[in-house]
Amino acid sequence: MEAIDVSPEMLTLVGTGVLGEHRWPPSPVAFEIDFGNPIRFRFHHSAKRAALETRCNDVRVVLIVDRAACDRLLGSELDLGDGDTFFLPTELRAIALAIRECGLPEAAATPYRLAKSIELLCEILSAKREDRLTASTGPASLSQLDIHRIAAARQIIDEQWTEKLTLDRIARRCGLNRSKLSRGFRQIYRCTVSEALVERRLAEARRQLIATDLPVSLIGYRSGYLNNASFTRAFGRRFGQSPTDFRACAVAA
């Protein structure tokens, strides 16, 4: 695997094959990301070469990090269990894919992947701190296949939120009936399918208000709201401010 020596406290490995001979941080833990459908990561409480080489034929990104550094970034002791596996949240999937697929020349690729590795670690720990990690195992009432199909439904929402998605359409795409999808989605993600879709659209609207100068009405329309009043109400309920006030505060900051 290709190695990125991020710091004395962190090593990133990318690709397939055995780990190779590299300097490891002291007291290492590991976050092993595999790129199945959906993308998941497995936590290794005490990173060991033998455990990390069991899937050496798969394309992976492996973050090997000093435990003390994780505790420091998290602000408390990292209490994930050995072998705990989680679906990678939407915004983190993009970072992991950027590390895996970086096509820059070597002189630029190394610092780019180094920065993205730090970002990915910080975002994983932030998701842990904010209880946004979803375990890839679920209630006993759901089979492992159902759990993967429900995760696929979440990925459809996260990646295709601009489309006219309905519960029936999402259920058909992921191979579940609507009642099992509705029930299982709430069990795993603690919200309904429609609530997840609204959250995804409003999160993108929030990003566009900060990152672009597009008119508020256009951002609302692109987020699935047919008029500015309904967009303003939904945004205000979620973020406590109107879109216009939110943008003004972001610009002032």
Automatic annotation (TrEMBL):
<dbReference type="InterPro" id="IPR053142">
    <property type="entry name" value="PchR_regulatory_protein"/>
</dbReference>
<feature type="domain" description="HTH araC/xylS-type">
    <location>
        <begin position="151"/>
        <end position="249"/>
    </location>
</feature>
<keyword id="KW-0804">Transcription</keyword>
<dbReference type="InterPro" id="IPR009057">
    <property type="entry name" value="Homeodomain-like_sf"/>
</dbReference>
<dbReference type="InterPro" id="IPR018060">
    <property type="entry name" value="HTH_AraC"/>
</dbReference>
<dbReference type="Pfam" id="PF12833">
    <property type="entry name" value="HTH_18"/>
</dbReference>
<keyword id="KW-0805">Transcription regulation</keyword>
<protein>
    <submittedName>
        <fullName>AraC family transcriptional regulator</fullName>
    </submittedName>
</protein>
